[in-house]
Amino acid sequence: MALKIFESKKHVFWQAFFLTSMFFILGLVFGIYLEQARTDSLNVAFYQSESSLYDSFALGQLANDPSISCKMITDANVVFADKIYEEAKNLEKFDESNKLTESAKIIHRKYDLLRTLLWMNLINIKENCNANTIVYLYAYKTDNVKLKAEQIVWRRILEELKYQMGNEVILIPIAADQDITSLDYLIEKYEIKEFPAVIINEKDVLYEHKTTKELSEYFK
Fold first, then answer.
1. For a Cys-Cys bond, which of 32, 148, 192, 213 suits 187, CB 3.0-4.6 Å?
2. Phi, psi of 131, deg, nearest 5
3. For 1-27, how does the pLDDT look when each residue is reduced to its tens digit (9 = 90+)?
4. What is the structure's pLDDT at 6?
5. 8 Å CB contact between 37 and 103
6. How many CB atoms lie within 10 A of CB 69?
7. From CA 56, how far away is CA 78, in angstroms rounded?
8. What is the Cα–Cα distance from 60 to 64, expressed in whole angstroms?
9. Residue 169 pLDDT > 50, yes or no?
10. Residues whose CB falls within 8 Å of the CB of residue 172, separated by 6 or more in sequence, listed in order
11. What single-letter DSSP state applies at residue 217?
12. pLDDT in tens, 170-199
């Protein structure tokens, strides 16, 4: 009798062990699937943005064509900048939920390169057309709590300014610590000493927080 009870308990134990293992494996597989699906979705969005950037480049090459207005060129860049800005916010949520997986880091770096190319394109366009730009350079790979808090404040201020000014200004946030050679060159060219930094029309570099009203004065 005791032997039968022992065997019954043993059988129940193995059943529980099997079910626990099965649910653990299924959960692990499902988690990997979800992460891969999100990564694939971000990659698709990136390639679409990359195509839009090349389109903006091509349009910029026609700046001397009298049939292409500066407004058309500027508007195209505004639309593109706004598009990748929204995608950047989605990427930040992805980063937070996945604790900076390698795939998320790589995609983030690709977007930072895309935004750097956008900035370079706008610098070239300004030789023939007027365009107001705010480039926000921040630290991506930091654990400094004070620095993170400072960057959150800057981000909110700039988001509010962009909301108020709309298409009058092009906002380009770029992580400055992504080892992007072209970006490093621009940082050196404009003598950026620390991060976060806000560059307004490649003329004024700000490090201290300002109100949206104070920032709007730079565009008058």
1. 192
2. -155, 125
3. 544 444 454 555 455 544 555 544 544
4. 44
5. no
6. 12
7. 10
8. 9
9. yes
10. 81, 85, 115, 118, 119, 122, 133, 134, 135, 136
11. G
12. 999 999 999 999 999 999 999 998 999 999
Measure the CA–CA gap between 127 and 78, rounded to whole angstroms. 17
What pLDDT, on a 0 to 100 scale, did the predictor assign at position 26? 45
165 pLDDT band, cuts 50/70/90, is: very high
Judge if the upstream peptide bond of residue 66 is cis by omega within 30 degrees of 0: no
Question: Phi/psi zone of residue 38: left (φ > 0), alpha (ψ -120 to 50 degrees), beta?
Answer: alpha
Q: Which amino acid is at 208?
A: E
What's the predicted TM-score (pTM) here?
0.72
Q: In this structure, are residues 119 and 186 in contact, taking their beta carbons and an 8 Å threshold?
A: yes
> Reading across the β-sheet that carries 170-175, which strands appear in turn?
170-175, 133-138, 197-200, 204-206
Cβ contact 158:198 at 8 Å: yes
- Residue 84 phi/psi, 5-degree rounding, is -75, -20
CA atoms within 13 A on the CB side of 83: 18
Residue pointed to by tokens 């079910």: 19
Say how many Å lie between the first and final Cα of the chain, rounded.
93
> Distance of CA 116 to CAs 39, 64, 68, 153, 178, Å?
22, 24, 24, 22, 11
pLDDT higher for 80 or 142?
Answer: 142
Residue 212 pLDDT grade (very low, low, confident, very high; cuts 50, 70, 90): very high
